Amino acid sequence: MNDAHFHLVVTHLPIVGVLVGFLVLLSGYIIKSPQVKTTALGIFIFSALTAIAAFYTGEGAEQIVENLPGISETLIHNHEELAELFFTMMLVLGGASLLTLFLQFKKFPFVKHAFGLVLLLSISCIIISKYVGTTGGEITHIEIRNDANVIQLDSNHDSLDD
Questions:
Q1: What is the pTM of this model?
Q2: Is 32 left (phi over 0), alpha (psi -120 to 50) or beta?
Q3: Which string of DSSP letters, residue by residue, matches 47-80?
Q4: Which keywords appear in this protein's UniProt record, sorted alphabetically (predicted)?
Q5: In angstroms, rounded to a whole number, what is the distance separating the alpha carbons of residues 86 and 79?
Q6: pLDDT of residue 154
Q7: 116-146 pLDDT, tens digit each
Q8: How many CB atoms lie within 10 A of CB 66?
Q9: Positive or negative, the Cα torsion across 148, 150, 156, 161?
Q10: How far is 105 from 91, CA to CA, in rounded Å?
Q11: 84 and 95 in contact (C-beta within 8 Å)?
C-alpha cells in the first residue's frame, strides 16, 4: 500500500464519521437520550482523530499523483485549501465534543448548550466535507469534474478530424 492508497482509505473515515455522528446526535435529541448523544460525541472524537491521519497522509499522496498524466496542480491546490479548513473544523469539533463529554460527566447544567454547539459545528463540518471530498475526487476522476463533458466533446471532436 503506497501513500496515495493509504490517503484514500483514511480520508473517507472523517467524512462519513461526521455525517454518522450528526445523525446519531440528532436521533439522541429526538428520542431524548443522553446515552445516544454521548455516543455521538465519541463518534465525533474518533472522526477528528481520523481527520488527523487523513490530513497528514495528503502530502505523500500528492507526491505520487502530481506527476501522473492529466493531473492538475490547480485541482490539487483547491483540495489542499479545503482540506486545511476541514482539518481545522474537525479538530474544533473533536475538541468541543471532548469538552462536552467532560461537562456531561461533571453534570454541569449548561451542557445542553455545549451539545447545541457540537450540533452546529457538525453541520458546518458536513458542508465542508462535501467540498473537500468532491475536490479530492476530481483530482483523478475526470468523470466527476464540471468540465468532464467539455473534455469528452473535445476528445470526440479530435477523433472526428482524423
A1: 0.85
A2: left
A3: HHHHHHHHHHHHHHHHHHHTTSTT--HHHHHHHH
A4: Membrane, Transmembrane, Transmembrane helix
A5: 10
A6: 44
A7: 999 999 999 999 999 999 999 888 877 767 7
A8: 12
A9: negative
A10: 21
A11: no
For 112, the grid coordinates are: 445542553
- Per-residue CA distances from 115 to 26, 27, 91 (Å): 10, 13, 16
* Range 3-161 has CATH code 1.20.120: yes
- Length of the chain, please? 162
pLDDT tens profile 7-47: 989 999 999 999 999 999 999 999 999 999 999 999 999 99
Closest Cα partner for 124 from 91, 101, 81?
91
Place of cell 460525541: 41
Query: Nearest 10 degrees: CA dihedral of 49, 37, 96, 99?
Result: -100
User: Distance between CA atoms of 106 and 71, rounded to whole angstroms?
Assistant: 51
Closest to 15 in 3D by CA, of 81, 89, 115: 89
